[in-house]
Write a structure and sequence with these properties.
The longest helix is centred in the last third of the chain and has 14 residues, at 68-81. The N and C termini lie far apart (35 Å). This protein has helices spanning 22-32, 55-65, 68-81, and strands at residues 2-8, 13-19, 45-51. Strand 1 and strand 2 (13-19) form a beta hairpin. Strands 2-1-3 form a three-stranded antiparallel beta sheet, sandwiched between helices. By secondary structure, the chain is an alpha+beta fold.
């Protein structure tokens, strides 16, 4: 299982999720999905990924990224990868 964080440079938004098929899921976020949060802020690129043996481990990590501490960590990742000029 993969926990992933997507970032939209165009809209300065991020999205956190988990999946068992990252390639398919990214395609859904960027191309095939017709409704939902991520359809409004395309294009998305992968900011961060982490891999887990079990679904429950992935869910726990995804939930962490959605806490205040996790969101601060994501903010730092964005600032490192996309520094303001």
């Amino acid at each position: 299982y993969t926990v992933y964080i997507l970032y939209s440079q165009k809209f300065h938004k991020h999205y956190t999720g988990f999946t068992s098929d990252l390639e398919r899921r990214i395609e859904e976020h960027n191309l095939t999905a017709t409704k939902g949060y991520t359809t409004r802020f395309r294009p998305w690129e992968i900011l961060h990924t982490e891999y887990f043996q079990t679904r429950s481990e992935a869910i726990l990590r995804e939930k962490f990224f959605k806490t205040g501490v996790g969101r601060e960590l994501i903010k730092k990742m964005i600032e490192e990868k996309f520094p303001l000029i």
